[in-house]
Amino acid sequence: MRSAFLWRFESLIRNHFGNGEKNKLDVLLHGSTEVITMKSRRSRRFVNRATRRRRVTVGVVLTVAVLAAFVAAVVHYDATAKRDRDRAAQARAAAEAPPPVFTDRGTLRFGAADAPTVLTVTTDFACPSCRTFAQASDPALAGLIDGHRVAVDYDPVAIATEPKDYAARAANAAACVAVADKNAWPAWYRLMFQHQPGPKDPSPTDDRLVDLAAQSGVAGADVAGCIRGERYRQFVTAHTDHAIAAGLTHTPTVRVGDRVVENITPDGLHTAIDRAAAK
């Protein structure tokens, strides 16, 4: 039989050895678990960082793409809008340009191009004073033109308001007749004032204007379409606005060169022309 001492010693050794092995196993297992856990955490952090970087990269790329598309759309819109504005401006400029046979100033010249003096008559076909002036001065002006002393620039505008809209339609008709046959224009000019409506009279119709053109020797579908369609209405409006902006306050206004003639009787016109020629 073992002594109680040996049994106790062996039990202590066995217990000590068992505990040691258990501790070693626990240490190994615990250490491995910590290593695995640390590696797993590091791996997840790496994956998370990579994922975030990819998301940031994708976000930046998408943002840049959206901005690029927006900038391209704005540039395209601006270019299209500018092209449309340019086309509209060109169309407006063409519509407001003086008709063929008119001067660059928008006047209709009769007489020698190299005449030493230019007399400009700014008139309105709805203006009663313009009718009085035309009927009194036409013979004198015709004589001055024939004598090569002056060139006369007729300058129709539309500032009279009664009869309604007549002044603008008559000025448009003036351009239509001049373009169709400039040589017939003086006869038409006289005829228009002979048949001028009063301020309270009904405005003559387009058919009436076409008929007056035919009476002066200018007929045909083109001139009729020009009068009825108001082909030169935008020119008339722009030219009148320009004249008013330049200081026009009334019609008739007569200038010799750049000087306004106060006495517009035939004698007054001769005097103004003589003074201009003497300078």
UniProtKB/TrEMBL annotation:
All residue ranges annotated as the Thioredoxin-like fold domain in the record: 106-274
Signal sequence, start to end: none
Sorted UniProt keywords: Membrane, Transmembrane, Transmembrane helix
Lineage: superkingdom: Bacteria
Transmembrane segments: 56-77
Membrane in keyword set: yes
Record has Membrane as a keyword: yes
Highest classification ranks of the organism: Bacteria, Bacillati, Actinomycetota, Actinomycetes, Mycobacteriales
Family annotation (InterPro entries): Thioredoxin-like_fold, Thioredoxin-like_sf
Pfam families in the cross-refs: Thioredoxin_4
Name of the protein: Thioredoxin domain-containing protein
